[in-house]
């Protein structure tokens, strides 16, 4: 399964942009203006003939399509992610891929500069794979890469699994070989952001999501694998003993992150398909939030399902940066169920800052409905949970940036079971077939206008 196959399945959603645009802010400006809307294909990139840039690859609807559950209950997608995580399948490995070798010069690639104040052009959709020095452990994860020269990048390496592999290589006095894949099927991207135990390869999770159809290519020089369907593959090494400033770059909150000393990546080879698609993710945009947050929604859904009768939907809201705020629709048997749901959500996703629990009649994706539920079904002295001094996320600039400690809030905005439910429901106006037809014609007229 490849990015190209996915693009073919989304042709009705694709907006082709023929104007020549620069990688310096211009493409990013269009991405920002159309964030969450059509899938964008920029066909003419100034100074990068032969490359096409794709963006807005996945909103929620297109992500469900990529998972093969389009039109299904959102819980079907959550179940699929959980099952792939718990039943990973080893992909088939090939000896070579459908690529031609390019000159190892990063300036040939249409890497975007996104925001004023960014440190430079950043690769934002890099799926990075690496193995431990003895080859027993493989990790696949997404990391941002600052282009700092023709063959030099600086990688933001948080202390998780890839960082651990890098430390293992350093202890043996080695650089860590990596494969950087750009332009992969969305299921591969999603798998690489799905939390799994150290020692489980996210490629195996992706293969399960894709029904066993993922194929990988072995890259012997760097002792790493890359998806055969990738548009671009960069081979390189995370240097054991070379660091450089990384940042600032806008993170998921839409604010600039700090400058840190981070490891340097030295590029050895670049491979590309013919007329490659370069996938660009807007930092802080909806696609960034979807890929980062959707696996966490699945974890929240599973955890909350264990303490309440049913969970109808989970939304890590765009306004909450796709990471810090959750709205959860549940069915409850007793009034304590909503509070148990809040506590389970905080446990499943420790970065959460605020959780709102609503009834199934509230659309968790509609901020106005959620606010209405809080306005009409919530009393602070009975329905508010405040947890002080809890570990949260340093992505929140208001949290303690050294410890990550914050105050968390849970809101039970469900109807009290002992009260007459009709008093908490919005009034309705019956709509006849004649009025439906009139409204249909008015809607068609408005769209033409």
Characterization of this structure:
There is one protein chain. The chain is of the alpha+beta class and 449 residues long. Helix content is 28%, strand content 27%. The strands form 4 sheets. Strands 5, 6, 7, 8, 9, 10, 11, 14 and 15 form a 9-stranded antiparallel β-sheet that branches. Strands 17-18-19-21-20 form a 5-stranded mixed β-sheet. It has a 4-stranded mixed β-sheet with strand order 1-2-3-16, covered by helices on one side. Helix 4 (74-86) crosses helix 8 (286-305). The model has no long low-confidence stretch (mean pLDDT 95).
Topology:
Layout: H1 3-9, E1 14-17, H2 26-33, E2 39-42, E3 52-55, H3 60-66, H4 74-86, E4 92-94, E5 100-102, E6 122-123, E7 127-131, E8 138-142, E9 145-147, E10 152-155, H5 161-171, E11 176-182, H6 186-192, H7 202-209, E12 215-219, E13 224-227, E14 232-246, E15 260-272, E16 277-279, H8 286-305, E17 310-316, E18 325-331, H9 337-348, E19 354-358, H10 367-377, H11 380-383, E20 384-391, E21 405-413, H12 433-448
Parallel strand pairs: 1-2, 3-16, 4-12, 18-19, 19-21
Antiparallel strand pairs: 2-3, 5-15, 6-9, 7-8, 7-11, 9-10, 10-15, 11-14, 12-13, 14-15, 17-18, 20-21
Helix pairs in contact: 4-7, 4-8, 6-7, 8-9
The stretches of 5 or more residues where confidence is low (pLDDT under 50) are none
The mean pLDDT is 95
* Beta-strand share of residues: 25-35%
The biggest sheet amounts to: 9 strands, antiparallel
Q: What shape does the CA trace take?
A: globular
Q: What level of helicity do the residues show? A: 25-40%
DSSP summary, beta strand count: 21
